[in-house]
Amino acid sequence: MDVKENKQLFGLVGKNISYSFSRSYFSDKFNLLNLEGYKYVNFDIENINNFENVIIENASVLKGLNVTIPYKEEVLQFLDKVDKKAAEIGAVNTIKITKKGKLKGYNTDYYGFKKSIEPLLKKYHKKALILGTGGASKAVAFALKKLDIEVTYVSRKGKGIHTISYEEITKEIIEDNLLIINSTPLGTHPNVNVCPQIPYEFIGKKHILYDLIYNPSKTLFLEKGETKGAVIKNGLEMLEFQAEKAWEIWQK
Q1: What is the pLDDT of residues 236-245, one digit of tens each?
Q2: Pairing mode, if any, of strands 103-106 and 150-155?
Q3: What are phi and psi of 99, to 5 degrees?
Q4: pTM of the model
Q5: Which domains does the chain have, with CATH numbers?
Q6: How far is CA 206 from CA 113, 121, 212, 225, 240, in A?
C-alpha cells in the first residue's frame, strides 16, 4: 500500500502487531467522522533502529504515532521532546509530529489505566502487585501512585527497588496486596492457556485482578481470580481511553 496517497497518516509502531487494537479502532473512528484522506497503519519493525526509516519515509504525511511492545522505552532516544509525565514514567506510547517535523512523546497509558481502574477501587485497596516490569507497567505504577496506592513489582529476577520475584510471593503478600495487575503478555491470544505463576489459592473477594490484555477478553489469569470471587477487568477500556487521549493530543 502506498501510504503517501494519504494526507493525514497515523500509525502504530511495534513488533508482531498484526492483532493491533489501534488500527481497527482508529480506522473505524476515521470512517465514523468521515475523515477522508485519514489512514491508520501498522509499522511492524524488527528493531527500534528501523524507527527512523518510518519517520523519514512518511515525513510528508505522518501526523501521529502510537507505540507498543517492545518499544515504549527504547523509542525515547529518537524523540525531540518528551512530555513531563511521560518523562517521569520513563515510557512513551503516543507521539505527535509537529508542523516543524519534530517528535514529541506522551504517555496516555497511565491516563487510560487510571480512568478505568478508579470506579472499581474501595478504601481497602491500598497496595498493589504489578506483574511485569516493562513500559506498560511503569504507566500503571505512575497511575497507582497518583491514587495513593503502594506498588510492588513482580519480575522473574526479582531484583530492584520495590521488586520481588514470583517465587517470593507468599500468602501474606497476596492477602496484603488486594490489587493485582498483569502487565506481562502471558495469556495473550493465541497462547491462552498460560498465566503468571502466582498463588491464586490465596485470592479473595476483596481482590481486584486487572489484566492489560484484552484478547482474549477473559484470560486464564482473570478466570482464576473470578473463581475465587475477585473483581476482574481486562484492558479493553484502558485501550479505548488511552486511544481517545492520543487523538486529543494529535488534534492540538
Answers
A1: 999 999 999 9
A2: unpaired
A3: -60, -25
A4: 0.93
A5: 3-107 (3.40.50.10860), 110-235 (3.40.50.720)
A6: 20, 10, 20, 11, 26
Give the containing element (helix H, strand E) for 221.
helix 220-227
Residue partners of 171: CB distance under 8 A and separation at least 6: 199, 202
Cell 481517545 maps to which residue? 244
As annotated, the active-site residues are 72
User: Which residues 6+ apart lie within 8 Å of 148 measured at CB?
Assistant: 126
- Mean pLDDT over the full length of the chain: 95
Report whether 105 contacts 82 (CB < 8 A): yes
Q: Which three cell numbers stand for residue 45?
A: 519493525
Residue 40 near residue 26, CB atoms below 8 Å:
yes
Give tens-digit pLDDT for 7-56. 899 999 999 988 789 999 999 999 999 999 999 999 999 999 999 999 99
CA 23, 26, 29, 33: dihedral to nearest 10 degrees?
Answer: -120
DSSP letters, 99-110, are TTS-EEEE--HH
Which residues lie below 8 Å from residue 21, measured CB to CB, with a gap of 6+? 214, 215, 236, 239, 243
DSSP state of 194: -
Q: Which has the closest alpha carbon to 65: 26, 107, 94, 22?
A: 94
Q: What is the pLDDT of residues 42-99, one digit of tens each?
A: 999 999 999 999 999 999 999 999 999 899 999 999 999 999 999 999 999 999 999 8
